[in-house]
Amino acid sequence: MRIKPVKENRTHGSGEFDPEDFRRLGKNVVFERGVMVFHPENIEIGENVYIGHYTILKGYYKNRMTLGDHAWIGAQCFLHSAGGLRIGKAVGIGPKVTILTSQHHTPERSLPVYFSPIEFSEVTLDDGCDIGTGAIILPGTKIGEGAIIGAGAVVTNSVPAYEIWAGVPARKIGVR
To answer: What CATH number is given to the structural domain containing 107?
Structure first.
């Protein structure tokens, strides 16, 4: 097994931020206690947005995270934007939701997964969709306008507008 040596010890930072650090920060944005933000210079937040307690907005040194007007992000969410993350207007995201935009490429057996190349894929949540508590949205997926994702679902494929998906892996269970 080949293992790459660590060049140096380093941190991604404390997650502390100032409003002027953001690429854009709209009016009436609420950051509850314990919210951590990384790379705010690549994060755009619209107006009247709520971000719940202990949520992590994991910006990245490239690509962008965009949260549209009237978005509601529940407590203890993890939003990752290495591959790009676009959240539309009036999107609801329940507590403990995880959104990932990168993953390790399936490695050859001689290489640990951790050391394999990383693939980046944008995630889009269109206007008015709703993501249930504890759902996981995987890289490269798009949740269509007005769609609903059930609590605890693992979304591995894009979801058309106004459909209701649930389960592991998530699948269509209805329309609205």
So the answer is: 2.160.10.10
